[in-house]
# Entry
Amino acid sequence: MRTVLALLTLCVFALPAQAGFKVCNRTPHAAKVALGRFDGTAWLSEGWWTVRPKGCAVLLTEPLNARYYYLYAVDEASGGWDGKNGFCVGTADTFKIRGRGACEAHGYDRKGFFEVDTGQARDYTQSLSD
# Structure
């Protein structure tokens, strides 16, 4: 009995956690992705993740704690995916910016992100397609 309980406990802890935010690219072109969100204290934008053609990238590994997240993505062919929710983005390969206002005054670009409704799931995958 102890052996069965120990093996069961080991199996539970060995399973990968199913939590986070993932973006899958269903197009034939690589995409650069930025994520906007409220982290519980402040608005934050971060990027860039490169999502290869027909591939996926994990943007967040922790369980999601909000219903709405925001994405902005660009590719070399279509121009990209955007929306009406303004966030700051950096021009470097990676960035993490706290706040959403006065982007240009702080040396950032302002882009329109589209809203993703996760339905308050702990784990969510968003697809980009043509």
